[in-house]
Amino acid sequence: MTKQDNQFKKVISHAKEYGYIVQSSEIYDGLGAVYDYLQNGVELKNNIREYWWKSMVQLHENIVGIDSAIFMHPTTWKASGHIDAFNDPLIDNKDSKKRYRADVLVEDYAEKLLKKAQKEIDKAKKRFGESFDEEQFKTTNPRVVKYLTQRKKALQKIAQYLEENNLEAVKTLIEELEIACPVSGSKNWTDVKQFNLMFGTKIGASADSALDLYLRPETAQGIFVNFLNVQKSSRMKIPFGIAQTGKAFRNEIVARQFIFRMREFEQMEMQFFVRPGEQIKWYKTWKERRLAWHLSLGLGQENYRFHKHEKLAHYADAAADIEFNFPFGFKELEGIHSRTDFDLSSHESHSGKKLQYFDPELNKSYVPYVVETSIGLDRMFLAVFSTSLQEETLENGSTRTVLRLPAILAPVKVAILPLVKKDGLPEIAHKIMADLKISFNAIYDEKDAVGRRYRRQDAVGTPFCITIDHQTVEDKTVTLRYRDSMQQKRLKIQEIKALITDEVSMSNWLKKIKL
Ligand code: GAP
């Protein structure tokens, strides 16, 4: 197991042990790629959503929010292109009866070649020490060159065949590469078929009158179909945006990597309506704004990078992902897409209703262009949680597990800990708790030695602990302990609330976002 795999395993087990995330319906052996958020998970998730919402709707005078239904008229998905083109290429292994995404089989094959090349590089690094020139080695060592060339060719071919929708060639490629089923080891494959990712359901009581529906695969379409309702009732002038958070559903075939790729997940999307011709200017602005939002959380600038889409979807004229350094490497966290007037125009023609804006400055009507920002809330959760989870060696040689969550996102802001369960200390602690819990999430804990209680709060991610001891009875002061530095300081009981409020106030963090 690689170091990365090991770290990722720790993330998953920590999430379960400390009440963040478990698999859905675990007592029935779980449901693939569906997860439940527990008592701490739901708080962290709510806080991330709130921070996003405030940065969009509160900080921008020209953005409003909505909450549209998950069920939408089926024609919505015809207009959006999801019925015709929201597909994955699937292939079955005839012996194991297991189903795979054909492109992922090839990607996994390519990943194995990369690992083989890396192994050779690591071996040589050890052998040559300081004088090792990695770039030169990669281009001259015959084995490494072979692995990397094979990898590149396989990835180029699969991209080309999928682009051409040449499913026969995809199957031939899998056979040529001698890719075997990971379960049965057999190379006995069916043809490749396109499979739509939307979940279907029905609305209505009787079988003949029931209407076929889909669970929405993105929240964005609820914004498009309400574009004029919002514009008219809010009297917004272009440019303006509509934000929405909510569940989306995709029947993902390759459902792995924990909450990175789920079948039921949550999106936070914003569609920004602009004048035709001004979309690229706004696309660039939104790339900057969204990165600034991420950086304000302090997870480390080095963990983010942009990935520009070279091949664009038919409706887009520019697109990029913000990728994050997850425990399994850099992967898409958020998409920023310039979607032209595709969605609104398509809804106009499918519904027969005008979806145009009268621009008083230009004195004409037009279908606005749209720049979209779209981030998965669960993916953002994984980014925050996995980066925050750290194992530290302390000065005395012992280790501690600490979840260094940004204070505004932490589920519990402060733990109140009486040193002992007697001498009037619990009574004072309960009074402090009663006062603080009105302002933020606080917990009371009197079990075990105080050192162990600190460790438990470190692992849960609680940024502050307050300890009540015998000195408190005499002079009404307590010890405040910081999770990250483990430093302690003495302060008066009446000073606690102001100090913590200052540290966990979203307003203070929102100020840091450079718009
Ligand atoms: N409206 C545009 C849209 O839906 P997308 O790239 O398909 O674009 C946007 O999805 C974001 O939603 C992704 O960047 C990712 O964060 C999240 N997302 C997509 N599929 C997901 C899944 N199966 N599980 C978790 N998050 C997902």
Overview of the structural elements:
Helices cover 40% and strands 24% of the residues. With 515 residues, the chain is α+β, with helices and mostly antiparallel strands. The protein has three domains: 1-70 and 212-394, Bira Bifunctional Protein, Domain 2 (BirA Bifunctional Protein, domain 2), CATH 3.30.930.10; 87-196, Herpes Virus-1 (2-Layer Sandwich); 412-510, Anticodon-binding domain (Rossmann fold). The strands form seven sheets. Strands 3-9-10-16-13-12-11 form a seven-stranded mixed sheet. The protein has a five-stranded mixed sheet with strand order 20-19-21-22-23, with helices on both faces. The chain starts with a helix and ends in a 5-residue tail after the last helix. Bound molecules: glycyl-adenosine-5'-phosphate (GAP). Residues 218, 220, 250, 252, 261-262, 265, 267, 269, 332-335, 372, 374-376, 378-379 line the site of glycyl-adenosine-5'-phosphate.
